[in-house]
Amino acid sequence: MYPTQGRPHRRRLALATALLLGAGLAAAAPAGVASANQGADAGGAPRKVVSAYFADWDVYGRGYYVKDIPADKINVIQYAFGVPTYDASTGTPGCGILDPWADYQQPYTSDISVDGVADDSADPNQHLYGSFNQLRKLKAAHPGLKVEISLGGWTDSTYLSTISKTAALRQAFVSACLNTFIAGNLPGDSWPPSAGGPGAAAGLFDGIDLDWEYPTSVGGGNVNVGPEDRHNATLLAAEFRRQLDQLGAKNHAHYLLTAAMPAAKNSTNYYELRQFVQSLDWANIMTYDFNVPGGTVSGPDTLFTGDPRDPNGSDWTWNTTGTVAWYLANGVPRDKIVVGVPFYGNQYIRSDGLYRPFDNTGLDPNSLQPDQMPQPTYHSLVDVANLVGHNGYTSSWDLLAGEPYLTNKAAVHNLATGTVTVPTTIVYSDPRSIGERTLLIKALGLRGAMAWELSQDSDSHALISALNPVLH
């Protein structure tokens, strides 16, 4: 138990709630903005949301498969990622598969299958394999579970600026995405020979999650960006909504449309918040990565409330509660707000405490070893390295930010460049800090929570379990 549990924790939550109420809950559903809950039961959109990403590469790294997803604790899965494409020679946008083998080609043996039944690569009538087929089985076992395809992400938003420039491009792009992922028309000519083809993934995806990171910004490699992206993003969302509703009327279904959206005041540099969100069922706000290993001090990846020691602490929105207040004040209805949480943290070596200088030379973002990770997962901290309160690490609590952190004055790191023994600080999320979000969501009547990402949770599903009360 942390020494700061109890009344200080409750006071901080009360203060955060008061801040948000003062930011304009009464104005959170302005005229002309429909509530996300209107017609939700008839349409099939969940009134409360615990959504979590499952990344296609999870099957490689941790060996985390769809069967490992705690589907009884969530009601939406966001599959990362689908890839927006653009053929410059023909001026044609497309919507592609990130990893065909992991997504729909890999035959599963019985031991890693959701239902214990192996795939048969010689069966000419089986057209779906890989994680897509396993997700279909998971949905069959858990009625009401929704699966979305997430488009873009930090490294694959490359062409979203280009394909949003004109009405014709937007229409063609959206049509391509619905053809691939909603109609389920996957590329064929693969191994197994029967994999893919027309309608192979039909009925798998219940909607689209837009992960444009970010309009107007080069981000992780975007091209052809410009200030017009901000309004074009609104138009793109409207086109998705139009075509999804058109298809839904034909199929007697409601298809979800959501988006991953940035935190803090600078979110309005990228999006016309109120107008953009009008087209969505809800907005997944990425209230994390406030501090990253590319920064200047050993700061929390996510903050629940503001800490003046943070490099951006003078910005009252530079934390979860401040960001929610900002979205509310900018006309985003509270029942369209989904609060994002990270299932990973930041590791700072050669750092003797919180908000201190660091030198991460030697850490490797591609490593699977906890002592080499700049951003270790909760799974690696708890299940692999057992660092939380053990092996020389002291657990502490940042009372102002409402986040846990670990310190070790002489941590041993076996780096590729050699073994070093240095002071180390690790900031991360734990069930208590996740629980703060759950209480806030319930207190304010927000839509729910979103997590990046499922394979990073502990073997006991401690973090997603701390979010599950949102659904009750």
Structural commentary:
The chain is α/β, with parallel strands linked by helices. It has one domain: TIM Barrel. The protein contains twelve helices and 13 strands. The chain has helices at 7-22, 40-43, 100-105, 130-141, 167-182, 229-251, 267-270, 273-278, 320-329, 378-384, 431-444, 462-467, and strands at residues 49-55, 76-87, 92-97, 146-153, 207-212, 256-261, 282-285, 337-342, 346-349, 394-398, 403-415, 418-427, 448-452. Strands 1-2-4-5-6-7-8-13 form an eight-stranded parallel beta barrel, surrounded by four helices. Strands 9-12-11-10 form a four-stranded antiparallel β-sheet, with no helix packed on it. β5, α6 and β6 form a beta-alpha-beta unit. α5 packs across α6. It is globular. The relative contact order is 0.14.
